[in-house]
Amino acid sequence: MTEKKKVLVLFDIDGTLTPSRKTLTEDMDNFITELQTKVDVGVVGGSDLPKQKEQLGENATTRFKYSFSENGVIAFEEGKLISKSSITDKLGEEKLQKFLNFCLHYIADFELPVKRGTFIEFRNGMINISLIGRNCSYEERLQYVELEKEGQFRQKFVKILQEKFSEYGLVFSIGGQISIDVFPQGWSKEYCLQFVNNKGYDEIHFFGDKTYKGGNDYEIFIHEETIGHTVTCPEDTVKICKELFF
Ligand code: M1P
């Protein structure tokens, strides 16, 4: 008799398990519960833990075998915090300030039909920068998405940051709809693999929607230790998983 394979399925959150910044639907919740009877399930998001909890529920760290926020810089295994790192230690105060000050100047000079608050959100393992400001409403967020299709605001900003801070060893990732994630090289979603690659899995699958070069799922998607799957929306995630694991 052939032995059952030990499989881990890691999911991106926005655009893969939920629409961007939205919560899990009841159907998705039920699907995850069923999937967990067949394989181990983990989540790896770019957002910080409070946002992850808003989307997945207060039990986000216990609900999944592995729960990785900020790409795994905050890592939980079966509800226990197993690792936490900081961009402050990695980069040092001098470089950090030079970088933040440059971004603040750029944002201050940047004009949009609507600008709100929280242009820079400082997290443990990354800096999240938004030209419109993270405090914008959901409607304002969607308007920005439309405007950016033509304006390519973040792409242009990233190009400038890449040139200006080429010596800093930073990655600039356009993961969500209104912001740019900035973190040290190697701290993209592939970072979380160090916590699962020694656990005896025969296969580690990763599902994400931004798997193209420059997207925040790219590095883990192409990683040699994962079997990568590109999805177009949460319903697509369910469809592919059912074909593979049910
Ligand atoms: O999970 C994807 C991204 O979600 C948010 O992006 P935005 O607000 O731009 O849609 C942010 O939390 C970002 O850090 C994260 O990568």
TrEMBL record:
It is found in: Cytoplasm. InterPro entries: HAD-like_sf (IPR036412), HAD-SF_hydro_IIB (IPR006379), HAD_sf (IPR023214), PMM (IPR005002), PMM_cap (IPR043169). Alpha-D-mannose 1-phosphate binds at residues 21, 123, 134, 141, 179, 181. One of its GO terms (molecular function) is phosphomannomutase activity. Pathway: Nucleotide-sugar biosynthesis; GDP-alpha-D-mannose biosynthesis; alpha-D-mannose 1-phosphate from D-fructose 6-phosphate: step 2/2. CDD domains: HAD_PMM. Keywords: Cytoplasm, Isomerase, Magnesium, Metal-binding. The active site is at residues 12, 14. It catalyses: alpha-D-mannose 1-phosphate = D-mannose 6-phosphate. Its EC number is 5.4.2.8. Mg(2+) binds at residues 12, 14, 209, 221, 226. Belongs to the eukaryotic PMM family. This is Phosphomannomutase. It comes from Anaeramoeba flamelloides.
